[in-house]
Amino acid sequence: MAGVDGADERYVVGVDYGTLSGRALVVRVRDGAEVGTAVHAYRHGVIETLLPDGGPALPPDWALQDPEDYRDVLRRAVPAALADAGVDPSRVIGIGTDFTACTVLPTLADGTPLCEVPELRPRPHAWVKLWKHHAAQPHADRINALAHERGEPWIGRYGGKISAEWQFAKGLQILEEDPEIYHRAERFVEAADWIVWQLCDEETRNVCTAGYKGIRQDGRYPSTDYLSALHPAFADFVSKLDGRLLPLGDRAGSLSARAAAWTGLPVGIAVAVGNVDAHVTVAAARALDPGRLVAIMGTSTCHVVNGAHPAEVPGMCGVVDGGISAGAWGYEAGQSAVGDIFGWFVEHAAPAGTASHERLTELAASQPVGAHGLIALDWWNGNRSLLVNHDLSGVIVGLTLATRPQDVYRALLESTAFGTRMIIEAFVGAGVPVRDLVVAGGLTSNRLLMQIYADVTNRPLGIIGSAQGPALGSAIHAAVAAGAYPDVHRASAVMGRVDEGAYRPDPDNVRAYDALYAEYRTLHDHFGRGGDDVLLRLRAIRNAAAAAPGEAVLEVVG
Predict the structure, then answer these.
(1) Which tens digits make up the pLDDT trace of 209-265?
(2) How far is 103 from 276, CA to CA, in rounded Å?
(3) Contact call for residues 334 and 424 (beta carbons, < 8 A)
(4) Are 127 and 105 in contact (CB under 8 A)?
């Protein structure tokens, strides 16, 4: 606390923007000690059915947010964290932020979100599209098909498929469903960069989201010819993205008077370049060396690992030079639902008496591997890696009248570990080593789940030494941006923390899980790689049943 520290202590603030809330963390620069924290829940949360002011129902698979909720995190969480720390704001030298991604919004040239332009507020496409907005899957399919037809050189850097979550799919959806919004948008901005713009009144772009979410490779975006072939009016899309591109850890600018009034921080302190929640966590976990895969596990999971060279990994989200840290090729993959799956079961399927994670975990931990006789596919929110298809859905095989709630719960835990193993094997098969895992995020407290991951992947598993990994990572980058450390590697070595090898594979469990994983792979390939498209047909039937209100919305805004 400030009352104990010497008068020359310096601090930084990290702000982590999650799916439902924003977290602020005050960190001491000299050793990474976390001295104060606060959380502010978004007032509007995830907008999935109706816009805040009402209107027609949103179509299926939409997920929007209100940018004012992001500003409120600066107004509420940052001052509360400073108060919790008892730190004099004058001793804070920098602020860093991270965001979910791909979370994007259309704005005017000055950064004003289109949803804050009064006459555009009733238009759904004017709002922030959250990472889990999956309604652009048909547009992603066309982007991918045309890229392969033309032999575009960048498509291999994304495992052969661009996700429906990424910038180009969401931008193309706006153009085709509400062209007026598309043309009114002078800028199309990752929320990671927009919040930095709000802090320092300077528009910048970070190499992380530009590379992974914006198809920027080898210094270029996709060509105008390619974009025109997708849609003639899409030729100018890159002009809405392009801007001052900065590496991670750089200083984007200085805190403006307006943002200082929001946060209670001094005018002029360093504002770090924007970053992504998963990628910024690697520094907090001291996992910047190649071969250390960091799994940031929460509602979804993002898998990131540094490599020494570029490789094409089928189904990965991307590989970007400097995408995690300077001097390395950063690889990303992910699962679109993990904690959300467990939460769904507790909330909607577990009977009274077992409807808590704690009770289900306790019951599930008492059974041997394989005793439940079940295999599940972890596609409750589609598949991000390796299939890159958000129209897929979950599967549970092996249910009988003897199946108990804890059996299903354990099978769901295991399914997410099997999905992670698929990703690891894809990396290793393409020549990207994965020696061990470091896990961050809210799910690290579930000891059964962590042991399952160690056993299924047959790798030692470390646990990040912070409950706020992304916020700590953002604070580390803020310290570098403020000049307290020469680079992110050296700041990570001092300010990051990890409990190495907290979980070790159990040889008997490894063998048992090898047999179950073989069955998972069989089901994975059957339902996900063309053996039977029943999941896609079911999704089409569902969407057709909801099409009438969905079409009404698009007719109103188009």
Answers:
(1) 999 999 999 999 999 999 999 999 999 999 999 999 999 999 999 999 999 999 999
(2) 10
(3) no
(4) yes
Cα distance between residue 1 and residue 81, in whole Å: 12
Would you give the distance in Å from CA 493 to the centre of its chain?
24
For the record, the structure tokens of 117 come out as 């332009």
Long-range contacts of 236-239 (CB under 8 A, 24+ apart): 237/168, 237/171, 237/172, 237/175, 237/188
Strand order of the sheet with strand 21-28?
A: 34-41, 21-28, 11-17, 92-99, 270-272, 251-254
d(CA 186, CA 243): 12
> Per-residue pLDDT tens for 11-28?
999 999 999 999 999 999
For 338-382, write each residue's pLDDT tens digit: 999 999 999 999 999 999 999 999 999 999 999 999 999 999 999
* Integer angstrom CA distances of residue 40 from 71, 74, 204, 263, 456: 11, 9, 25, 13, 36
Q: Which residues of 304-314 are buried (b: 16+ CB within 10 A; e: fewer)?
A: bbbbeebbebe
Contact call for residues 53 and 122 (beta carbons, < 8 A): yes
Rounded Cα distance, 246 and 95, in Å: 16
Helix, strand, coil fractions of the chain, as percent rounded to 5: 45, 20, 40
